[in-house]
Design goal:
This protein is of the alpha+beta class. The chain has helices at about 65-70, 120-125, 125-135; strands at about 10-15, 25, 30, 35, 60, 85, 100, 105-110, 145-150, 155, 160-165. A hairpin with a 3-residue loop joins β3 (about 30) and β4. α2 crosses α3 (about 125-135). It is globular and about 35 Å long. The mean pLDDT is about 90.
């Protein structure tokens, strides 16, 4: 996990959450500023103002960490993250405002913290959540990060994901 690339990595998996507790693997997906990841329930979720939270539009998680805690690849979808990437998602490498390209889309890291919820704990165990959220590891964003979509486009498993200076 510590050896994940810092500037450009790879999109290794795409998952949508069409409904509560549902996960589907996709080989490709369409990202848009209005809808997030097409088919994902984010666009229909209600935040504090009754609208989807634009700071939590799409979630990214490091593939190396996810493989470590999920064990089998089939369990990776249980994390609930949309884009599984081999890329350093740490605070120092991906601060809020950092822009990324993947496929045809342009994304921007938001300032919303991403921590393991109760469901994450149920699926991967409380030790995984404690490990991810330990104060000394929190800046590594082990649970992942949230991004918002600035420019719409199609993304595909295998695409390069890279920082934009």
């Amino acid at each position: 996990m510590l050896a994940s690339p810092q500037d450009h990595g790879k999109l290794e998996a795409i998952f949508i959450r069409p409904g509560q507790d549902q996960r589907e693997y996709q080989k490709a997906g369409y990202l848009s500023p209005k809808g997030g990841l097409e088919g994902d329930r984010w666009a229909t979720s209600e935040g504090e103002d009754g609208k989807p939270n634009p700071r939590a539009q799409v979630s990214l998680m490091n593939s190396r960490l996810l493989k470590m805690i999920a064990g089998e690849e089939e369990r990776m979808a249980l994390a609930g993250a949309n884009l599984i990437v081999d890329l350093d998602l740490s605070e120092t490498n991906m601060p809020a405002g950092q822009r990324l390209t993947v496929g045809e889309a342009l994304l921007e890291v938001t300032d919303l913290p991403h921590t393991g919820c109760g469901k994450f704990s149920e699926r991967f165990g409380p030790d995984a959540v404690r490990y991810i959220n330990a104060a000394k590891r929190r800046p590594r964003h082990l649970r992942g990060i949230y991004v918002r979509v600035l420019k719409a486009g199609t993304v595909r498993v295998g695409d390069v994901i890279q920082k934009v200076e």
